[in-house]
């Protein structure tokens, strides 16, 4: 296989980004997180700030109206069309970027519904990373210098909007469903660095790498 992709979905504070960055170092392949937003901006010419506004979240609009706009339209609309900067079109542009990455290089993609977008591709390993709430709270509290109460609120809100986003664009799937992934890992039990090693072992098994 000429290239492979690792997608990482993660609960907030579980260490998913850390695992992705460490995999990038050990495997010598790039890790894409917010970089995808700037790539989508470059591809489309749309201001990058708009992509950040819909980064794994739904803006406060009527879901019914958004579904109506989305129905029957699975292509990227052009700059002359009214829906050029709509949430759905921004998602489709990101989808194009992710599909191009998966086709042309080995890489790691964090979040962005990547496991759903690439679900039909045989060169993809999808991972979901989670940890007990107390571990996530401790991680966020230390990383962002916030109180335990603030950390709890941030985790609740972030996981909620990521879940809503995933469910909407996947057509109803729950992002925490283990069936959607090759692997689900609890970093609270095995540790973040050991999770990295397990993913590498799985890569070797799946792709029969020596």
Describe this structure in words.
This protein has helices at residues 16-27, 35-44, 48-53, 63-70, 87-104, 114-117, 133-144, 148-170, 187-190, 192-207, and strands at residues 5-10, 31-32, 107-110, 124-130, 183-186. It starts with a strand and ends with a helix. A 5-stranded parallel sheet has the order 2-3-1-4-5, with helices on both faces. The chain has 210 residues and is an alpha/beta fold. Helix 1 (16-27) crosses helix 10 (192-207), helix 2 (35-44) packs across helix 5 and helix 7 packs across helix 8 (148-170). The chain contains 10 helices and 5 strands.
Number of helices: 10
Instruction: Return the string of H and E elements.
Output: EHEHHHHEHEHHEHH
Please state the overall shape, judged from the principal axes of the Cα atoms.
globular
Largest sheet: 5 strands, parallel
Task: Tell me the helix content.
Answer: 40-55%
Query: Given the helix and strand composition, which structural class is it?
Result: alpha/beta
Specify Rg, calculated over alpha carbons.
17 Å
Strand share of the residues?
A: 5-15%
Oligomer: single chain
* Spatial order of strands in the largest sheet: 2-3-1-4-5
- End-to-end distance, in Å? 13 Å
Which parts are unreliable, with pLDDT below 50 for 5 consecutive residues or more? Answer: 68-72
Total E-strand runs: 5
What is the averaged pLDDT score? 91
